[in-house]
Amino acid sequence: MREMIVSELTRAMQELVKDFARFLPRLIVFVIIAFAGWVIAYLLKLIARSILRLIKFDKLSENAGASQLLAKAALPPSSELLSRLVFWVAWLGFILLGINALGIFGLQEHISRFFLFLPRLFAALFIMFVGLLAASFFSRATLLAAVNGNLPSPRLLSISVRAVIVVFVISMFFEELGIADQTVLVAFGIVFGAVMLGLAIAFGAGGKELAQRFLEHKLVHANEDDKNEDELSPL
Amino acid sequence: MLKEVSTPERTGALRTDAKLAEEGFLTDDFVRQLISVGEIDILVGLPTHNNAKTISSVVAAIQSGILQSFSRDRAAIIDADAGSRDGTPDLVVSASIDDVRRRDSNRFALRTLHSISMQYGSSPARGIAFRTILSAAELLRPRASAVFSPDSTSIQPDWLRSLLKPVSTEGFDLVLPTYTRHKFDGLLVTNLLYPVTRALYGLRIREPYASEFAFSSRLGSQFLSENSWNDETAREGCEVRFTVAAIAGGFRIGQVYLGAKDPLDRSAADLVPALRQTIGVLFGSMESNLSVWTSKTGSQPITTIGADQQFALEPRRINRKRLLDMFRAGVAELDSVFQSILAPSTLAELRGIARLEEEDFRYSGELWVKTVYEFAVAHHKAVINRDHIIQALAPLFRGRALTFLLENRTASAAAVEEHIENLCLEFERLKPYLLELWKDRE
User: What is the ipTM metric for this complex?
Assistant: First the structure.
């Protein structure tokens, strides 16, 4: 009985050692891949940072209004943030390759899903960046047009334009990532509809007098002014 | 008429015909009509678009001018039309010089006056219209060409002689006008375009953005070949671009006094397009002419034929409160935009004067010059979209215009001229500040 137990334990130990001996090279491969991946990811980070600085990405980001958001969230500048993202995505990719080399059953499917997800992640980030740029451009264009057109509340108009574009961009961002796309779509519809309805009610009820004054000024007093005053001819 | 084209020069012109036809810019019919005209001595260009109300009197004045001063010369009127729907091209083409002769004088034109119209598009684009006129001049090889505004209500027959003679007989390449204008008309010219052009390029050109001017074939050809016509931005404000090209190319420039000019029917709401076509183009020209303007200090007068700029002084009722309100609204609402464009000290001063009441309000010359130079550098650097930079200048210009109105409310013509001269000298004095900013931004 005792011999049998010893024999079984010995066999189990031997198998464990054999398994470990079989696993050890894979572990070494994993460590090598992870280390090489870290080096490559670090190099990619340096390259990405240089390219982003060369193309003055921080300036673009500032124009898009992204820098202000990052500063409020105590995050580094956008070129630094993006180069760090490149580093982590690259290194994570290598770590997952290493885990794949370990041959752990069940993980391979998740790893392949991750790699399939990467292009969508980059596409979503691109949409977000271009969207923020567009929001900044159009809100500033609205602000300038409203100021030069002597319209009331130019900043409110500008913020409204920015908000609508940002909400639209966020919904596209999540749709591209495939995260709760139906929920996001419905939420977008509700938010957009609510904003429009709110504006309509606010203008119709709350801003009735303002609208009346505005229209009177534009259509009645402005004409009287025009009759009595000479226009300045800039050229 | 076709016999006239069989000269060596004409062969060169025909080669140009082929080139233009290849480019597909001029229509075949237009080129055919130009070829049938042959060589001419003077060319008058009209960039039209729905100008039926005024075009007949403008064409009549031109025809009368031809009868009075160019009766022995071969002449052509080229109408570059933007798809008028009120029959403007027909009015140009069908206007008979004989009617003018019967009405105004007993002179006879010894040569046929040709009138040709070409529709270049369906919406007005002065750059394309000007390109059409230049292309026609390239083919017809006139000794002198002139462009007139089709909506001018003050054009006189002698304007034709005044503008064209210096080019055709005295060797000028570009002749620009000076007028008698009300002291509060053309504030964009007197407070911005003239002083900036003068400080940058060192020549005292009173009307760098002229609606009437004359030019030589030499200048026309060079501008036609060197200007980037495919660039959308290059099509806007071609008048300023043309003036700057003449300065940068070392062409001989003069100005001639034409008389009283009625303000065009442009309201204050047109300020932003006017800024785009003038100061926007001038800012844009600074990059391509860097070596020209950075080497100039001070300014020189140019040959002026007749009187210098004159000012009418009759009182006008102008809404100063609206100007002040729009200036204040601009400073308050566009603060984030100005932070990208202006130096902190300049912005702080602007915030300060925006708090002043009308009677104390003063946008000083020095502050205005610094503002404009900082805008020029921001435009060069494209700190934000360039068109947005130009639009952001509009409310500040209103503040400067208000100061000009207040300073000159009761001023004599001499005092108005002195104020403009002082502003110009301020622009010249602070040019090193512009150069410093430009270098820093580089």
Answer: 0.83
